[in-house]
């Protein structure tokens, strides 16, 4: 039996931004926003991508969808590398991949009705017009828990949770296989977050959707994800099944990240060291482990050698030199 090909496979994804200065605006440095990220996502799976603010999560999201052009690397959607494609050649693939943004109000045109917003992709791709388009939009509204008579309302007439449902309906309109959720509930009240998460899970079951779910709220990620990838300063440092990652975090950064979570009971409180030290400059040359200057277990080799993934358990990979050579057991 052959192994099923991933729906999305990202290999050595790099996105660098030039830093310009002086009167002539010449390039004086480079920001390594994403620096060699690789992961695979199977059909119907949810991969959670977590990390602190500024680590490159949203840049990964936009680069995977070609909303931001990658500096280098491969982005294979169903086996086809879409990274080098021109905008016209990429257009057919747009229907297969959509995004739900963090701020539901900023991502909706305030001059358009909710029905026009959801129906716009159908018009752009020539899939439906007139009555057929209205019927399809009404169906989408029903699927996300909105009423058809709300199609004529404008975004400001909806609550935050309802606006995010409009964004989800718009993402569903073209029948995508992959949806990138870029912190889709972080701008919502806690009471509404659960409703939106449950909606996303129901839609995944109904339509066989695949999610790349980006968030900084680890409890949300644990609930919705099959696997979790942890990012730190432009690189993935650990990938594991969700239950395994939260039960047995291996990378020192992951351990410190989870130690910051509130415990359900004092006896469950983690005792790992708190992260100390300052973040490296974003235009650093990237030599060695990015976490080395803040890691309590770092040695001289960590400052000069680039860590590669080492499998510590089935499906559990860690990018740590000391774990790889067996000198550190966590």
Structure description:
The chain is an alpha/beta fold and 330 residues long. It has one domain: Rossmann fold (3-Layer(aba) Sandwich). The protein contains 11 helices and 12 strands. The protein has helices at 57-64, 87-94, 114-124, 130-143, 160-172, 190-207, 218-224, 242-247, 252-259, 300-304, 321-324, and strands at residues 8-21, 26-41, 46-50, 72-77, 80-81, 97-100, 178-182, 210-214, 227-232, 235-241, 309-313, 316-319. Helix 6 links the parallel strand 7 (178-182) and strand 8. The chain starts with 7 loop residues before the first strand and ends in a 6-residue tail after the last helix.
Look at the structure and name the CATH superfamily: P-loop containing nucleotide triphosphate hydrolases
Neighbour order of strands in the largest sheet: 6-7-8-3-9-10-12-11
CATH architecture: 3-Layer(aba) Sandwich
Count of alpha and pi helical runs:
11
So what's the CATH class? Alpha Beta
Strand content: 15-25%
CATH topology: Rossmann fold
Mean pLDDT score: 89
Structural class: alpha/beta
Question: For the report, how would you describe the main beta sheet?
Answer: 8 strands, mixed
In total, how many beta strands? Answer: 12
Number of self-contained structural domains = 1
**Which series of helices and strands comes N to C?**
EEEHEEHEHHHEHEHEEHHHEEH
Helix-residue proportion? 25-40%
Radius of gyration: 21 Å
From the N-terminal CA to the C-terminal CA, the straight-line distance is 36 Å
Q: Which residues sit in consecutive blocks of at least 5 with pLDDT less than 50? A: none
Shape: globular
From the structure provided, what is the oligomeric state, counting identical versus distinct chains?
A: single chain
């Amino acid at each position: 039996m052959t192994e099923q090909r991933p729906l999305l496979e990202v290999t050595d994804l790099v996105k660098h931004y030039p830093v310009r200065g002086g009167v002539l605006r010449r390039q004086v440095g480079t920001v390594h926003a994403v620096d060699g990220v690789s992961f695979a996502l199977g059909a119907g799976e949810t991969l959670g991508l977590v990390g602190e603010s500024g680590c490159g999560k949203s840049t990964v999201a936009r680069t995977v969808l070609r909303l931001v052009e990658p500096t280098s690397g491969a982005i294979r959607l169903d086996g086809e590398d879409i990274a080098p494609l021109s905008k016209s050649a990429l257009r057919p693939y747009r229907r297969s991949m959509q995004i739900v943004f963090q701020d539901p109000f900023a991502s909706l045109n305030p001059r358009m009705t909710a029905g026009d917003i959801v129906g716009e992709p159908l018009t752009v791709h020539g899939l439906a017009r007139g009555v057929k388009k209205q019927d399809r939009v009404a169906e989408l509204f029903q699927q996300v828990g909105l009423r058809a008579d709300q199609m004529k309302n404008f975004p400001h007439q909806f609550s935050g949770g309802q606006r995010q449902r409009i964004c989800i309906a718009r993402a569903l309109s073209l029948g995508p296989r992959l949806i990138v959720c870029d912190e889709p509930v972080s701008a919502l009240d806690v009471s509404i977050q659960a409703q939106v998460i449950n909606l996303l899970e129901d839609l995944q079951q109904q339509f066989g959707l695949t999610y790349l779910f980006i968030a900084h709220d680890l409890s949300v990620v644990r609930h919705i994800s099959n696997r979790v990838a942890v990012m730190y300063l432009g690189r993935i440092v650990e990938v594991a099944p969700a239950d395994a990652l939260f039960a047995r975090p291996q990378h020192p950064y992951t351990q410190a990240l989870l130690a910051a979570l509130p415990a359900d009971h004092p006896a469950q409180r983690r005792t790992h060291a708190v992260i100390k030290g300052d973040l490296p400059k974003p235009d650093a040359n990237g030599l060695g482990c990015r976490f080395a200057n803040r890691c309590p277990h770092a040695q001289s080799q960590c400052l000069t050698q680039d860590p590669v993934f080492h499998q510590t358990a089935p499906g559990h990979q860690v990018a740590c030199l000391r774990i790889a050579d067996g000198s550190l057991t966590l």
